[in-house]
Amino acid sequence: MIYFDNNATTQVSPSVLEAMIPFLTEHYGNPSSAYRLGKVTAEALDHAREQVAALLGCKAKEIVFTSCGTESNNAALASALKTSGHRHIVTSAVEHSAIKNHGEDLELQGYAVTYLPVKEDGTLSVQDVEKALRPDTAIVSLMWANNETGVLFPVEEIGQLCRERGVLFHTDAVQAVGKIPINLSELAVDFLSVSGHKLHAPKGVGVLYTRRGVAYTPFLVGGSQEKNRRGGTENVASIVALGKAAEEALAHIKTEATQVKRLRDRLEKGLLETVSGTMVNGNPILRLPNTTNIAFESVEAEALLILLDYHGICASAGSACTTGSPTPSHVLRGMGFPVERTLGSLRLSLSRFNTEAEIDEVLKVIPKIVERLRRENPKAQELKKSLGF
Length: 389
Ligand code: PLP
Prior knowledge:
Aspartate Aminotransferase, domain 1, Aspartate Aminotransferase, domain 2, 2 domains, 7-stranded mixed beta sheet, 3-stranded antiparallel beta sheet, 14 helices, 12 strands, globular, binds pyridoxal-5'-phosphate
């Protein structure tokens, strides 16, 4: 199997699995318990917190473990609304559903949400953020890297702007963490979301970074875990795994910009050169090193995915959360592309576990599949016209 869908989820790294297993077997104590069995797990949580803090360039105390990226995103917005007492949120039109759908839900509850548009290359203007700020803005929440295109938002400048204007700033960094260097000690970011399963830890564990000194109120109200910032007995084994994954990600952060990027570029260049009627969606420079999103003229990406799967190749036609639904990607639509182009777009996302041999194989398979689909697609010529290629 060739796995090119690392923005959907990643394989658990073998050493991450090895690190977590003892916490599913002999070290099963509750970290809140006073006896030794509990102390072992409490210490393991402290160690994981240090490991994650090292990856993010922040203090261990600023790390709150959660159940996933979605929970972290929900928690940041909910806390900002409560602590500020304000009723307006600024976000973008291309956020992951973990922000977008929460925003829509908040609107139903009477809050106001501004969804900033992006340019055709998927980038966002800081001036647009500035213009959207209101006296009652509780928080600005903008993703660091887009899950579908990999396009990066100017988080540094947006954070600075928000700080100058006295508005809280949250970034959904679920796709950025582990792929690009992050140093929160140098950034004006108040809240940042991480998801374990995007960086070779298991699913169902995440982090919310909460800047020291910034008011925060828990989303899950219960016990005093996480220093009263998140109720619920900690998922110790997964947190240990996330700590180990963070340590490995930090050790490999240069590999992303070199090896992973080189493979991605070879794959992308190869497809653009060998398959006619192809275009990259998103800014080719301001993006993650592991992601390419390519539009294929006169091809339905869903059909392409099925044939790729037949060849043992995993990819995606949009974000994993929207796969199976006929709705065109709101990210590509938000970039102004016609429906046909969004439906003909394929996302390939790599990790450090991918190899040159896999790129060779995919470069052999995709052109053949595309040729077959175009030959067999009776609507090909019609589509070609409407795509505006
Ligand atoms: N934010 C982004 C940008 C994502 O890509 C994802 C997952 O695809 C999430 C949030 C949600 O993370 P989780 O699956 O851990 O809830």
